[in-house]
Amino acid sequence: MDTVTPNNDIEILLLRYISGDSSKSEREQILAWIRENSKNAQELVDLRYNLHIIEKKKKYFDTEKAITTFESKTQPKKNVSIKQILIYASSIAALILLLFAINIFISKDNTLNLLASTTESTKDIVLSDGSMVTLNKKSKLSSIETFEKTNRKLLLEGEAFFEVAPDKANPFEIKVKEVTVKVLGTAFNIFSDSLQNVVVTVKSGRVEVSYNNQIIYINQGEQVTFSGIIQKISKSNFDIANSDAWKTGQLIFSNTTLKEVVASINKNMKGKFYIATPEIESRKINAKFDYDDSLKDVEEILTVVLGVEIKNDTIYQTSNIEEYSQ
Q: Is 263 contained in some domain?
């Protein structure tokens, strides 16, 4: 498989990949490029996101027409290759897209009102309609125009837990990345990260999640996951006991598989555990961990309770016992 190193070449491949026009070989090159560096994945997400915004503003600017006009007026000279011209044209188009996107973001920010932001601690907020929000660390909550009973529209960056005051006439709406969450009255959690990933989990009530004209309804114990890189949205079940673990400061497991326990610890307590023996993934455990417990304490509990061995964050099988509890 060929590799792509020049920036202009990869930009062209990215545009073809996003538009769905790339070949199998080109898609393999893109995936290889993403694996080279985590920043590459972010670059793809950013480009896709900017193009998504610009597509919405198409009535103000026709990018395709601009590129066509540029190409029609550009004649190749004897010493200049067609490839060089295409690279130059794509660079100009990319610059136009970037400048236009910046203008969109500047205009958008002028209509936002910052309600709260956090750095190294969480924050509880009571909104004017009676809804309550707990904002996680390194998060930001803004209102689109003035938040009031008849305009309950918010913009979230990061993670927050919402307890929404019921109002059938005025739905509560949150925009996070490319996903829109709409509710009448319920309790739910929204998580998002720098790669444009979004996870919406419902603790009580019913929530509507929409992306790109696709609408999914989720109830208590269900979640929607949106992947920013592959632009895919999916629905699944989740452990409701730990839906707001970051807020309560506790992880509670009741007859929970080791696989689920490890995933939850890694996410909420910044663990890096890995199960080396697939056969023990289904072993079940009853336990409670506090956020201020050290990972060393967690290791000791898992070792004793499940009869496993942990070395360098890797979990190995040492016993044939199928189920443990504490």
A: yes
